[in-house]
């Protein structure tokens, strides 16, 4: 399955980010803790090459805790400040201002000595679609300023958000990059819903997810759906359809319904805390 998604508004977003990067001191990049390599836009490193950097591993409540610690060490080793966040509960969000102050301390002291007693810190927050930026911002500020949704492509325009008197965020729409050179990246992004479901072949994607889960998290599908994991992926999807009542008229199996049921259960951690990638994946792909 060849997955690509780069609608026209993303080109506009990229241009807007390039035009506004000079206005900020810090670039905060939101990644999905379940797949930090695939959810990291390779174009951001070039865009933010002269800026202070913070990596936020978001949705840690959905990810494998052991692998999240490995990813944190991986990014810290590359010189990033790393914060683990659960945007729903607010865990880790307060650390963003503290880390930002730490990064800006030297510059602010220089400005103070020149007589600039008040200089707000400005940060641009970036990330791929459906990574949770709007939810994080709303939790950060304490009220609904950014539009949220569980589908990719909800935020379409930039907006400045004042978090505190001395801290402002430039929110940007979720943006991918023009072409996935490695189709595994597209597959992983489709797993978590960062590619519009209307653009994917749900059954094929569910079969790919079944292959991953039986290999990397054996026992989860058997426990959740009472299926025999020794069977092939098609037989397992058939069994999920039967056991979960995914049927059409005439008792014909509804494979699409079973596929979306599986994907939804995975995306919402009903199968447990699962990470799709290891830090070695990033190294092997030159990230």
Kindly describe this structure.
The chain is of the alpha/beta class and 287 residues long. Helix content is 43%, strand content 13%. It is built from eleven helices and six strands. The chain has a six-stranded mixed sheet, with helices on both faces. Helix 3 links the parallel strand 2 (52-58) and strand 3. Helix 7 (202-216) packs across helix 9 (233-243), helix 7 packs across helix 10 (255-267) and helix 9 packs across helix 10 (255-267). The longest helix has 20 residues, at 94-113. The protein is elongated. It starts with 7 loop residues before the first helix and ends with a helix. The model is unreliable at 147-156 (pLDDT under 50).
Strand order across the largest sheet: 3-2-1-4-6-5
Round the Cα radius of gyration to an integer and report it. Answer: 21 Å
What sequence of helices (H) and strands (E) makes up the elements?
HEHEHEHEHEEHHHHHH
Main sheet properties:
6 strands, mixed
Beta-strand segment tally = 6
Beta-strand content estimate: 5-15%
* Number of helical segments with 4 or more residues: 11
Cα separation of the termini:
23 Å
Helix content: 40-55%
How would you describe the shape?
Answer: elongated
Look at the structure and give the mean pLDDT: 86
What structural category characterises the helix and strand content?
alpha/beta
The unreliable regions are 147-156
């Amino acid at each position: 399955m060849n997955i690509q998604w780069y609608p026209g508004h993303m080109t506009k977003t990229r241009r807007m980010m390039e035009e506004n990067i000079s206005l900020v001191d810090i670039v905060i990049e939101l990644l999905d803790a379940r797949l930090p390599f695939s959810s990291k836009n390779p174009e951001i490193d070039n865009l933010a090459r002269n800026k202070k950097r913070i990596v936020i591993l978001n949705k840690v409540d959905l990810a494998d805790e052991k692998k999240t610690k490995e990813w944190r060490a991986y990014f810290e080793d590359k010189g990033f400040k790393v914060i683990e966040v659960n945007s729903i509960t607010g865990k880790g969000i307060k650390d963003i201002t503290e880390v930002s102050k730490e990064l800006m301390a030297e510059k602010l002291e220089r400005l103070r000595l020149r007589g600039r007693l008040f200089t707000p810190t400005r940060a641009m927050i970036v990330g791929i679609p459906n990574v949770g930026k709007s939810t994080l911002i709303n939790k950060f500020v304490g009220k609904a300023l950014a539009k949220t949704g569980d589908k990719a492509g909800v935020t379409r325009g930039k907006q400045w958000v004042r978090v505190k008197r001395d801290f402002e965020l430039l929110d940007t729409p979720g943006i991918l990059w023009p072409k996935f050179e490695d189709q595994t990246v597209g597959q992983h992004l489709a797993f978590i819903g960062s590619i519009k479901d209307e653009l994917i072949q749900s059954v094929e994607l569910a079969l790919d997810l079944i292959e991953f889960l039986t290999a990397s998290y054996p026992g989860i599908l058997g426990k959740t759906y009472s299926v025999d994991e020794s069977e092939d992926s098609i037989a397992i999807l058939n069994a999920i359809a039967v056991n979960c009542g995914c049927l059409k008229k005439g008792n014909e199996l509804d494979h699409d319904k079973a596929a979306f049921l599986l994907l939804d259960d995975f995306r919402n951690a009903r199968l447990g805390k699962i990470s799709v990638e290891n830090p070695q994946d990033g190294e092997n792909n030159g990230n």
